[in-house]
Amino acid sequence: MTVNRRQMFAGTAACLAVVCGSPIRLSAQEASDGFTELKIARVNRVLLEGGKEAGLWTYNGVNPGPEIRVRRHGEVKVRLVNGLDEPTMLHWHGIRIDNAMDGSPLTQNPVGPGETFDYVFPVPDAGTYWYHPHIGSSRQVEHGLYGALIVEEETPPADMSELTLVLDDWLINDDGTINQETFGDIRMAAHAGRMGNWFTVNGESRPHLVAPAGRRLRLRLLNCANARVMNLQVKGAEPHILALDGQPLGKPRVLGTEPLQLGPGGRADLLIRRATEQITLANVNQANEPLEVAYIDREGAQDEKDTSDIAALPTNGLPQTMDVSGVTARKLVMEGGAMGGLTGAKLRGRDVDMREMVQNGMAWAFNGVAGITEEPFANLKLGETAVFDFINKTAWPHAMHLHGHHMLPVMIDDKPLITQDWRDTAVVAANSTMRVAFVADNPGKWMLHCHMLEHQAAGMMTWVNVEID
Ligand SMILES: [Cu+2]
């Protein structure tokens, strides 16, 4: 069934072009009624060189889906056309938009086969975001349904070229087809989730990309894998981290020797100085081996040494710190999974034992409940400062994603964090507690779930209500 690691990373280094479709600039490429279509279709595409057609599902025939680019405070106007024979919907991951456009089962009905849905919303935040289905996510995302949503700064930084690198790992069979038998596999869901054996960057294995040597390079990295926590290294450069999950750092900082950890759903913007050296992107695997996943050649001359400061990107209005003194933390206890010792949980209002949970495809619980509930985990007043403790009592890390807001991790295991960065997808280590804070300033019903898509499907899912008064 599986492709071994040697095959996985021996992929062709000869692929010089990366096919990912040209970006859709929403202001420039409009249908007569102003909508840009994202049409889901199956496509004939080989992932494994020399292998069979993989069986991808795509937006507009390409993987990743078209990169959607819009200027901050501009408007996204996208018509989803469902060419699948199962329902879908589009979630705009990380961007703090109007609740009705969030594209989750809390905010809209599924878009049936042959149906369409119009998404229209202004974009409040500049940064690197993405879109993907929020129903049947484990299967739909794994089949290739995702793309980048890039919101440019009102005044984009000068003297900078940029590359978007959409990272994914796929679980494919020896013949190159997407493995189907493991969808819904409870053992997989109770462990790390669907870990792939074929790593792609912009849909290609180990692509060679090009950037001008005479300009600084902004790399937009997106982890679109179902479940893999990536640990990324950049060789041949000393990048600064400009932004995480779309939100600019108050002060860019050097990515040192520690790899950059990006949970599934997470993004990072890196800035690399003008230079002629080839850049290699590597992902450090669990055996601590850095496996090369993409190469960037710097072309042309570098006129002068690039030593000037790296400026911060303009803020999207989030503060650099939060005062959470006097705020009572709401506790979210995460339990279950393999080696977790969970004996049972509430499922659809009934107490069930672990055997019955497993029969229903469940392996995890939040506060003793598996799967979504009628009542939200938290009812918050508009403008309220909220503090959540994600108490991970499991043997696995989890990538906690809150819709419609960003969260500021302020403490881990009772130790205040010296470096605090806003995240919409925060990796909570095994047997660890993370405290996050945010202002509930976006009214509506917002999902709060693990972004390891198999964990989400197997119980790690709740929601937060932000009330107007
Ligand atoms: Cu998880």
Task: Describe the structure in your own words.
By secondary structure, the protein is mainly beta. The chain has 2 domains: 5-299, Sandwich (Immunoglobulin-like); 330-467, Immunoglobulin-like, CATH 2.60.40.420. 6% of the residues lie in helices and 42% in strands. The chain has 5 helices and 34 strands. It has helices at 5-9, 137-142, 186-190, 354-359, 453-457, and strands at residues 24-25, 36-43, 56-59, 65-71, 75-81, 90-93, 116-122, 127-133, 147-152, 160-170, 198-201, 208-212, 216-223, 230-235, 240-244, 247-254, 260-262, 267-272, 279-284, 290-299, 330-336, 344-347, 350-353, 364-366, 369-370, 378-381, 384-392, 398-402, 408-412, 415-416, 425-428, 432-440, 444-450, 461-467. The strands form 7 sheets. A 6-stranded mixed β-sheet has the order 11-10-13-18-15-16. The longest helix has 6 residues, at 137-142. It is globular and about 70 Å long. The protein starts with a helix and ends with a strand. Residues 1-21 have low confidence and may be disordered. The chain binds copper (II) ion.
